[in-house]
Amino acid sequence: MKPLGRVAPLKPDFYNRDPRRVARALLGKLLVRKTPSGILAGRIVETEAYLGEDDAAAHSAAGKTARNSVLFGPPGHAYVYFIYGTHYCLNVSCLPDGVAGGVLFRALEPVAGIEQMAKVRGVDLPEEPELRKISILKKISSGPGRMSEALGVTRLRDNDKNLTSPRSDLRIVDDDYRVRRVTVSPRIGIVKAAKDLLRYFIAGNPFVS
DNA sequence: GAGGAGATCGTCT
DNA sequence: GACGATCTCCTCT
To answer: How many Å from the CA of A134 to C1' of B4?
Structure first.
């Protein structure tokens, strides 16, 4: 396995299909951020699919605006939005240029740069690895706002970034991790289309939000 | 551990 | 002018 910063990102074709399939396929992949002080990475353990103009809960439901235009663009681009006056959430666009759709990243299992991510999150991480309980590690990147802060994702910095470019400092890579079982449930925190089973997570993974 | 309220601002009505 | 694809802190148990 090459160093994480040198592994090629997933290609546009991976995202050029139904968001439900992308959301499921993204589980187990690594979300990687390259920074001057090192690599930050987490395994994707929880996602949600947003289907586009037919999905009442999706930002793209009311049509294209300046805010959501990335969702209508080519596949594999980052859609970052600001919510509740405090948090950023990261999505990736799906389907061909001109067709809306995306996948929200909801939780990561920290893999690399754990100390650096804990620091920016304000999480007090014990020196001794055996004292780093799951309950502490979960505070780093379990939840859409938390994982965005851990990786330094902002709208200004990352919105519309091409995650499939070899030059991108934010990318998704496959390290051949095999997901055993996926569970599906309703999406979190929405009112419209609240019953649709469009949330996907790795069964039994403790870092699910 | 559970539940409730406040934070805080860009976006759309 | 209302509200949201959330998180944290505080209180009560």
So the answer is: 26
Separation between Cα atoms, residue A92 and residue A12, nearest integer Å: 11
In the DSSP assignment, the letter for residue A111 is: E
Q: Within 13 Å and on the Cβ side, how many CA atoms surround A103? A: 30
Distance A188 CA to B7 C1' (A): 20
Q: What is the pLDDT of residue A2?
A: 78
pLDDT of residue A127: 87
Domains and CATH numbers, chain A: 4-202 (3.10.300.10)
Please give the structure tokens belonging to residue A92: 């990736």
Those nucleotides of strand B lying less than 7 Å from any protein Cβ are 7-13
Reading the block at residue A205, the tokens are: 């993974």
| DSSP-based three-state secondary structure for A176 | coil
Which two three-digit tokens encode residue A98? 């001109």
The position carrying tokens 């439901």 is: A61
Helix (H) or strand (E) holding A206: none
Q: CA torsion, points A146, A151, A152, A155, in degrees to nearest 10?
A: -80
Average pLDDT, chain A: 95
Strand partners, A50: A102
